[in-house]
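FAQ
Q: What does a multi-component entry look like?
A: The components come first, one per line:
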Amino acid sequence: MLRGNALVAVRGDRRLFAGLDFALDAGELLYVNGPNGSGKTTLLRMLCGLVAPAEGAILWNGEDIRSVGDAYRAEMVYFGHLAGVKDELSGVENLRVNCRLAGQDPSDEELTRALGTLGLRGLETLPAKVLSQGQRRRVSLSRLLLSRAHLWILDEPYTALDRSAVELLQGLIRDHLARGGLAVLTTHQQVEIDAGITKELRLGS
Amino acid sequence: MEMSGIGLLSGTRNILARDLTLAGRRITDVLTTLFFFVIVVSLFPLGVGPEMNTLRMIAPGILWVAALLATMLSLGRLFTADYIDGTLEQMLLSPQPLSLIVLGKVAAHWLVTGAPLVLMSPLLGLQFGLGGAALGVLMLTLLIGTPVLSLVGAMGAALTLGLRGGGALISLLVLPLYIPVLIFGAGAVEAVASGLEAGAHLSLLGALLVLALCFGPWVTAAALRISLE
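Then the predicted structure of the entire assembly, as tokens:
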């Protein structure tokens, strides 16, 4: 479903990686690892279409993602370093805006339930600025729960999360893979996802 | 697809509603721009003196220049907050057309900064001894012109996003583009104040608005994609 063909990433005048190939099919997890500065985030931003590869192509169902455009973005969810949570908005409001941006319109009940699942019961209507760093990440993560995207692209999703949230997220990824979804993940933490097939992609070696 | 169920403009509405909520909770940002406009305009009668004829003559230009500067002042905020907290990334990754999301942001920007200027302008015009007809045209020109300022300003804001010293750069980029709006806007008020017709000025101002509406959001969307790469 997702293919990378001879990808080259250039940052400034430095080559991060070259000739990178991978293939990912339904139910598979691509675990991208490598030292700091090896181009993990750049690769993931490329997979989203935020950055164009210097050379090579990324194919979704055989078509270049840059020509598929909106139809590809409807199938994909990206969770990056930045939470995308507004200080002035409450958890429910933040989640609703994010879901609508992704083209969904969940009911208040679904929003509250998703936030509750991520351990934010009772905090849904507080402005995000009173939440802790980890709680804000949880607000942001809750959109994975409501997402119907086939492809999850997760860049260091475990940052600032406590043990229970990490386990919760691993469960979400496991369920997603079991449903035939695809996921691309970077992390420096030791993570065991015991579902589907895990492929490893090592950068900077 | 479920997308069509929500409608094409849902992206615009979603962001418009969100930005208005945010503006309501950060009301100081809104008031800063408005007070800047009021104070800059009010300084001129104090500096120039109470000679009514002089004031009446310079009034359209001053009100319009102050409106340009007040809009400029607020442009830095247009995308910066969304850029810093990562919401802008999510907008770029949305399956909804980015230009329509941008349109929602620009509409909210106008409602929050442009519209209060329009409403405040007749009161400030009185300080300069503008007559009823001239005040009416002043409001009308600002009503047509300030959306152009927001639309054009958004392009500059998108291009300078994330750059150091973006604030100064944005003025250099955007102010020259504001010149036609200034000429026709102030020109219309001057024409009416001296007993002439303002139809031609208003038509040209309207044409600028149509042009900015058609191309502005699209150019801004392209600039945002470049800025985030």
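Q: Is there any commentary attached?
A: Sometimes. For this entry: Chain B has nine helices and no strands.
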